[in-house]
Structure formats: structure tokens, C-alpha cells
Amino acid sequence: MALTAVIRVPSRALLRPWARLRDAALGWIEPAGGGGVEVSAQRFASQKVLVEPDPAAGVAVMKFKNPPVNSLSLELLTELVISLEKLENDKTVRGVVLTSDCPGIFSAGLDLTEMCGRNPAHYAEYWKAVQEMWLRLYLSNLVLVAAINGASPAGGCLIALTCDYRVMADNPKYCIGLNETLLGIVAPFWFKDNLVNTIGHRASERALQLGLLFPPTEALQVGMVDKVVPKDQVQSTALSVLAQWMAIPDHARQLTKNMMRKPTADRLLKQRDADIQNFVSFISRDSIQKSLQMYLEKLKQKKG
Ligand SMILES: CCCCCCCCC/C=C/C(=O)SCCNC(=O)CCNC(=O)[C@H](O)C(C)(C)COP(=O)(O)OP(=O)(O)OC[C@H]1O[C@@H](n2cnc3c(N)ncnc32)[C@H](O)[C@@H]1OP(=O)(O)O
Fold first, then answer.
1. What is the ipTM score, two decimals?
2. Ligand 1 centre and the CA of 156: distance in Å?
3. Would residue 2 count as lying in a domain?
4. ∠ CA 17-91-165 to the nearest 5 degrees?
């Protein structure tokens, strides 16, 4: 991306713990004794998130690239947040299409290997990054449209739900939903809130308890996606939708989006630390670790 803006990076001591990984992932360098350093955005070579800007149209396409299944590793989450921040600071960009570079998979959701067999400090760091991704996407001032070009379970579905509009490929093998209960885990309240805000309370209750994964036509019926189109039209349709949303004056649309979404985001913002503690103690339980390990084994056996 031909960005030339200068971004001030705060001293590492002031950054959140997971930002150390972000520094490494993005190649940020801090001089010895560092009180912050100015670096050109051109140097932020991202590996797991590709950004294709179209300044003339005022849009960008953001593609997740973490093969084979775009699991949301700490590294991918970190790059996603930084890429979004860069786009939000770029005055030429007003809308973004989120999609996948991995054939047939939008995202397999949270990376199970980040939640299995690690220590509590790692779980806390990981969960903070998951929260950060959701808050940044959900409250983004940009118009966000999801071009769901593959399977989108759990955390993959959550990313799509943060967007202003969802276009899905019509392949019945692609499914979308919050299937956490099938793994023996529970969708956190803010996943649930985002779903309720999208498809309503009754449909969410059923979908969440049963861990339903909806094929595209059912996802459309329940309101989890807004449009289903042939696979080769997903990105172009998403770009057309983006243009429609961008026809609205930004300030009016942004204030309206904020009015609709802030109360939901505030529920998490008011209890971020408690939510991290909850996650760490839940995920550290032996029974939960066993469930996750069995689920991972099942995924691997499926191949053999
Ligand atoms: C109180 C409340 C407190 C809070 C309580 C806690 C809240 C937690 C919330 C959790 C949210 C989540 O997102 S949990 C994640 C949920 N995700 C899922 O259930 C999706 C699982 N994956 C799948 O269904 C499939 O992989 C699918 C995406 C459809 C693609 O199928 P394919 O046949 O193309 O590919 P596969 O052969 O299955 O997978 C290829 C490889 O990727 C691995 N893989 C697949 N999904 C993976 C994943 N999510 N994380 C890591 N690795 C994954 C497989 O093990 C394989 O590894 P190798 O064999 O080594 O190659």
C-alpha cells in the first residue's frame, strides 16, 4: 500500500503486552532508551492481512491470509487491528471490504491452539487481542462490508457480524454461525449481544444453544447475512454495497452507527478485565481443555 503518513509509535513500556508481538510482526524498531519513534507506514509489511487500497474509489479490500483455514492467531488478530487502524487514519479511505485469501474458508474462528495447552498469561494476552479486534471492528467509523467467500464458524462469524453488511457466496458447503456449544464452550456475552443485535433474541437463543451453522440460504432467511450471490460475484457485490453506503454523508452515518452500537460495546468496555479473568479461568479448566483437545483431534482425524 502506498501510504506515506508518519505514525508516532509510543514507547514499548506504554504499550499493551500483546503489542510487543505486534512490534515484532510488523517490524517496528525502537531505539535504545526509546521515548517513541516516528516510522513511515510504508515499512509495515504485513504478512497475514493483505490490504488492497483503491484511493480513487475511497475503499480498500482487506484479505485474511493465514492458511490453511485463516484461524485467528494472535499474530493475525494483531495485524488485523493495525491494518484497520492504518486505514482509519488514511483520509482517502471511507469503506473496507473484509474477505479471505484462503480458498473456501472465510475464517475458521479463534485459533484453538492459542486456547489449548498454554499458560494463563498467554490466555489473558490472547483474549485481550480478541476483545480488541471486536471492539475496533464493531465501533469502526469506516463502512465495513463482509465478503464471506467460504466457511465462517464461530470467531469467523463474529468478524462478519461486526460489519455493516454481509454478502455470502452461495455454496451450500459454506456455513456460518456461532457453534461454540458444539465444542463444549460458551459464546461470551458480547458475541451473543452482537448476534442478538443482528438476528433478534429468539433466533439467537436457538442458534446459540444448538451451535447452529447455517448454509447460505438459511443464513439469509434468519438475517445472519444480507445477500447471497454466486461465489465469483461476492467481492464485486460487496464493493457495490460499499458504494451505496458511502453515498450517505459520513458524519451522519457515523453518528448513527455509534448511537446504535455504543451501548453494546460499552458493556464489554466496562468490564474488560473481568471478562479476561472469566475467560482465563473458564478455558484453564481441565474439562474445557479436554473438550478442546478432543475437538482438535476430531478435526485432524477427519483427514485420515
Ligand atoms: C464464560 C465464557 C468464557 C469464554 C469461553 C470461551 C469462548 C471461546 C470462543 C470461541 C470462539 C471460536 O472461534 S472457537 C473456534 C471454532 N472453530 C471451529 O469450530 C472451526 C473448526 N474447523 C472446521 O470446522 C474446519 O476446519 C473448516 C473451517 C470447516 C475447514 O475444513 P477443511 O476440511 O477445509 O480443513 P480441516 O482439515 O478441517 O483443517 C485444516 C487444518 O486446520 C486446523 N484447524 C481448523 N480449524 C482450526 C481452528 N479454529 N484453530 C486451529 N486450527 C484449526 C485443523 O486441525 C487442520 O490441522 P492439521 O490437521 O494439523 O492440518
1. 0.98
2. 10
3. no
4. 80
What would the pLDDT profile of 256-292 be if each residue is shown by its tens digit? 999 999 999 999 999 999 999 999 999 999 999 999 9
C-alpha span between 86 and 119 (Å, rounded): 32
Q: How many domains does the chain have?
A: 1
Would you place residue 3 in the very low, low, confident or very high pLDDT band (cuts 50, 70, 90)? Answer: very low
Query: Does ligand 1 come within 6 angstroms of the Cβ of 113?
Result: yes
Domain CATH code at residue 176: 3.90.226.10
C-alpha cell at 230: 454466486
Whether residue 102 has its Cβ less than 6 Å from ligand 1:
no
Q: Cα separations (Å) of 256 from 19, 164, 193?
A: 31, 12, 18
Q: Kindly give the number of the ligand 1 atom that is closest to the alpha carbon of 112.
A: 50
Among protein residues, the one with the nearest Cα to ligand 1's atom 56 is: 300
More confident site: 295 or 20: 295
Q: Give the domain extent around 271.
A: 44-302
Nearest CA to ligand 1 atom 32: 69
Q: Could you identify the atom of ligand 1 that is nearest to the CA of residue 158?
A: 13
Other Cβ atoms within 10 Å of 61 Cβ, number: 19
Position 303 scores a pLDDT of: 67
What is the tens place of the pLDDT at every residue in 127-163? 999 999 999 999 999 999 999 999 999 999 999 999 9
Catalytic residues: 110, 155, 179-180
Name the residue with the closest Cα to ligand 1, atom 3: 279
Q: Is the CB of 202 under 6 A from ligand 1?
A: no
Asked if residue 22 is part of any domain, the answer here is: no
Read off the pTM. 0.89
- State the virtual CA torsion across 73, 77, 78, 83 in degrees, nearest 10: 140
127 inside domain: yes
- Within a domain: 192: yes
